[in-house]
Sequence to fold (250 residues):
Amino acid sequence: MNVLRTISRAWHSVTRGKNSAVGTFRPEDFYGLQPRSAHAYREQFDVAENFTCAIGASVERINWIDKSVINDETPSVIEPMLMAAGITDLRQSKAQCLKWSAYLVPHVERAFGMRAILTIGQLWRENDPLFNPTWEQFHRLHEEGFSLEDFGKNGTGFNFHAWITLETGEILDFTLLSSLADAVPKKWGEMAGTVVGGYPEEVIKHHQYVPMVLGLDFAHTLNKRSPVALLAESTHDLPKLPMFVAAVPI
Fold:
């Protein structure tokens, strides 16, 4: 019980620290926290903001807007946005959540007229993790980048998921369903090329999005410190898998 109370107090601290100055927290302050929890998405997002600042990455604090912008008319916004971005086939996004999400952030901002934040973290299906990175892993990735050993026999590879969060608290996930369709075609095959959009608690039944680290600055630092390119400079780069990813059997 003492450990649980300590973690509860720590969670309360890093959540309430939303308006604290940069440098209030150390990365180690987050190590004992369980990212996956019953906490609401926005509350978890606040913790992710504080963690991002604690590891030295830059992210502008979000001011939530209490309205919904994703509805039945959203396809009429997304389709021309993708065309303007030079994207004609979202099915090519499979297994490349970071690259595609980071590339689409500025396009989403222009299309929806609000901030869009690259969001990276865990993804669960009920009690089973699809991706379950730790705070320690994100801290190391920001400091050192990926190494070839991460994709060796004892490595964890790309053990995270990336998507986009809007100021409304809604999310856009351009890659998940294409990845699931490729991995489990009998169940998800018809969903390839489909965009997930809406409030994260509602978009896919039994799935939970857990933000942990935020922003393009983190992504660009990770890219710079890794041995191969993880991000796209143009649409030509989007379908390309990093060499050490392509070599890993699925």
Summary: Residues 173 and 196 are 5 Å apart (CA to CA). The chain has nine helices and six strands. Residues 1-12, 18-22, 243-250 have pLDDT under 50 and may be disordered. Strands lie at 116-125, 128-131, 161-166, 171-173, 196-198, 207-214.
